[in-house]
Amino acid sequence: MKFLVIDDNAADRIQTVRTINDCFPQAEVFEVDSFESYETLLSQSPFDLLIAEYRLGWTNGLKLFLDVHQRYALPVIMLTGYGNEMLAATAIKSGITDYVAKANLDLLGPAIGQALLRQSKANDDNWQSNISHFIGGANDISNHHEMEVLLARKEAKLRAIFDNVFDGIFIVDEDGQIESTNPSIEKIFAYSVNSLIGQHIQLLIGDPDWSWCNLFSNHRPDGQGSKTLCSGLETYGLRRDGSSFPMDLTIIEINIDSRHMFVCTVHDVSKHKQAEDALRKLGSHLELAREEERARIAREIHDELGSFLTVLKMDMSWLIKQLPPDSTPCIKKTQSIIWQVGDAIQTVRRIITDLRPSILDHLGLFAAIEWHVEKFRQQSGIECLLSMPEIVAEIDEKHGMAIFRIMQEALTNAVLHAMASVVFVKISVKDGNLVMRIEDNGCGMTNEQVENSGRYGIKGMHERARYFGGELSFYGRPGQGVLLSLRMPIQSS
After folding, report:
1. Helix or strand or coil: residue 390?
2. In this structure, how many other beta carbons lie within 10 angstroms of the beta carbon of residue 8?
């Protein structure tokens, strides 16, 4: 009998050969520690049995089995220290004759005997002589059968769960090597299960900034149950065709037979992101429509109501001059009406300004910001320091309105929520981008409070900036105020 042992770990290979010699002293054992020696020995002459480690420097056990199976019909036993029950079930399902963990090396002899017995039955060649090699094999066969039944039951349970889970699940070891997957992974990434076994997790991650080495190096497993490395991490997956898609990634550490394994769950959020984008575009479109409607209403109020009140005031002024000097009650009443009309005109002007500041249309964004800051000082009593570039850049109407509304909302928040006494507004233009920084000395907020505030004003500022390709950031400092930073590309009007 000729056995071929494939293992690039010298110490493990020596122990395996010693175990084989103890059980089968007449067998010839050939050792393989590299791809070159594997090709050389396998091509020399056929072997009766092949024993292979799952994890090898140049391939893995499943791929090696497929390669051998294409050349020869000989039994293959996977002997490994890296696998688990899922890998054992996958190996046997793929056609490998048997699976033995290195921790249970005493089962290797019975496994070899059973494998040769099966092969001899299949070939129906020298049946009696082959049987003479296996003394006391009945108990070993029974143990092997029990193991197969146990593996089949556990595989059925796990597969029943895996096959009905919508999210993709795969298990990796400490080095990031994929050991098993569920069918949803095939649908999500378009890879077959067999092609992913033994591959690195990085193959499926499309984010260049994400690294398994960095993630694992920052994690120190302590062997005390499961731990979460990341939960709902927003990143990008990479399909077989090279296309990327957004996904949520969760990685949990588990311990199996004193080995640290990691269960990775992938949730494809492509449709969710598409719905978010559609809602964001709809919201931005409605905001633009709202601004246009405000401008239209402001114009109509100015042209119709404003003109009417102005003419009414002029007529009342003419009327008071026509009254006799001795008609004091009429003069006082008419003067009172003139004052009320004047108040109405001021109210109309305030409403028009709130709807659409005319200075923004006539003098541009920077003049409007300067006007609003001065108005903010007078109304709130808060000191507001403004810094703007000397050379005024021309900005188109829509971008200008978005920037003005963000500044307006930020100053309103400083009054209503920050309880600030000083606000700094700094605006600069560089490389085609307008940068606006608004900082106060109020009560401040933590970054978590800013992100989870639930305030529609903050969300509205984010959406305005995002719609025009800008970036809006908040930096909260408890007790030291909040810094708003806006960067937005500007277009000439």
Report:
1. coil
2. 17
Tell me the HSE value of 492 on the side-chain side, using a 13 A CA sphere.
Answer: 3
Of the candidates 85, 253, 228, the residue with the CA atom closest to the CA atom of residue 159: 85
Supply 97's token pair.
Answer: 């004759």
Angle CA(126)–CA(131)–CA(134) in degrees, nearest 5? 145
* pLDDT reported for residue 424: 93
Could you tell me the two tokens for 41? Answer: 């020995």
Q: How many residues does the chain have?
A: 493
d(CA 487, CA 493): 18
Phi then psi for residue 355, to 5 deg, are -70, -45
Q: Are residues 88 and 123 in the same domain?
A: yes
Q: Which of 131, 160, 189 is a domain's end point?
A: 160
226, HSE (Cβ side, Cα atoms, 13 Å): 9
Same domain (yes/no): 171, 125: no
Instruction: Give Cα 274 distance to the centre of its chain.
Output: 14
DSSP character at residue 258: T
Q: Which residue range is the domain that position 192 belongs to? A: 165-268
pLDDT digits (tens, 9 = 90+) for 424-461: 999 998 888 899 999 998 888 776 666 665 566 788 88
Tens digits of per-residue pLDDT, 353-408? Answer: 788 787 887 888 888 899 999 989 998 889 999 998 877 777 888 888 889 989 98
- If asked whether residues 75 and 199 sit together in one domain, one would say no
**Domains in the chain: how many in total?**
4
Cα–Cα distance measured from residue 274 to residue 466, given in angstroms and rounded to the nearest whole number: 15
For the chain, percent of residues with pLDDT exceeding 90: 11
Do 445 and 369 share a domain, yes or no? yes
Beta bridge partners of 170: 181, 264
- Arithmetic mean of pLDDT, 157-178: 82
CATH number for the domain spanning 76: value is 3.40.50.2300
Same domain? 132 vs 181: no
Closest CA to 50 of 59, 38, 34: 38
Q: Which helix (H) or strand (E) holds 85?
A: helix 85-94
